[in-house]
Design brief:
There is one protein chain. By secondary structure, the protein is α+β, with helices and mostly antiparallel strands. The protein has two domains: 96 residues, Transthyretin/hydroxyisourate hydrolase domain (Immunoglobulin-like); 119 residues, no CATH class. The chain contains seven helices and eight strands, in the order αββββββββαααααα. A hairpin with an 8-residue loop joins strand 7 and strand 8. Helix 3 packs antiparallel against helix 4, helix 4 packs across helix 7 and helix 5 packs antiparallel against helix 7.
């Protein structure tokens, strides 16, 4: 019995120490970067127009990593890899973090493009939006190429047609984004998408989206930002109308 009490006491102390080590962290991020044996990882968040470091992880031998963070609400974070000797445009992995357990699996050679992120409902929703947004991006790239070809040939009729098609594609992207935010107003990803993708959309759309947010989303970081931004836009327009 005495040995059992000693074991239970030791287990309790160990558990308490483990909890104390991570303070009030509510986000546990684990991951694996295949092929990455030595270097550093940085977890960053947006602050005004800059990225601010919130955690540094040293990699030496094992490609596995983990981080414990405290977030007041779901937030877009950036996992940045320092390869040590080489630079790449594929060094920055953007993902939507939220309280709970999040897992990131990727490779050194395709750090961003082949990343698999699980454990975040907001990340799932953001990835869904990005997948459809790529269709508009691909269409825009095709129109740019067609514009270059028409410019070389001096084909004004074709240039005018391409210009109209480009405007229509952009309008469709804006409307799709607004509808996506409205249909997913229970996710914190919704106000983030509005602020990052269609900030200059007509105020009536902003107002509708802002009012459609659930109370929980409205109290989140991006929910508050959208409410403040919408109120400022409405105030500015009212002043101009006077």
């Amino acid at each position: 019995m005495r040995n059992l009490l000693v074991a239970l006491t030791a287990l309790t102390l160990f558990t308490a120490c483990q909890k104390e080590d991570h303070g009030d962290a509510n986000v546990h991020i684990t991951g694996n970067i295949k092929g990455f044996k030595k270097g550093r990882l940085f977890l960053k968040r947006e602050s005004d127009t800059a990225l601010v470091n919130i955690d540094t992880i040293n990699i030496d031998g094992s490609p596995a990593f983990e981080s414990h963070l405290k977030l007041d609400s779901p937030e877009m974070l950036y996992l940045v890899i320092d390869r040590g000797t080489t630079e790449s445009i594929d060094d920055n992995l953007k993902f939507f973090a939220e309280p709970g357990n999040i897992k990131i699996e990727t490779t050194l050679d395709y750090f961003y493009s082949r990343a698999k992120i699980t454990g975040s409902k907001n990340q799932d929703k953001y990835a869904e939006y990005e997948a459809i947004k790529r269709r508009f991006t691909d269409t825009n790239l095709e129109l740019i190429q067609r514009n270059l070809d028409a410019t070389k040939k001096g084909d004004q009729v074709r240039l005018d047609s391409i210009s109209k098609a480009s405007e229509q594609n952009e309008k469709r992207r804006y409307l799709f984004t607004a509808n996506f935010a409205l249909n997913n107003a229970k996710f914190e990803a919704a106000p983030y998408i509005v602020l990052s993708e269609i900030q200059d959309i007509n105020t009536k759309y902003l107002d509708t989206i802002q009012k459609s947010m659930t109370p929980q989303v409205a109290k989140s970081k991006y929910g508050k930002m959208l409410s403040t931004y919408t109120a400022d836009r409405k105030k500015a327009e009212a002043t101009q109308a006077q």
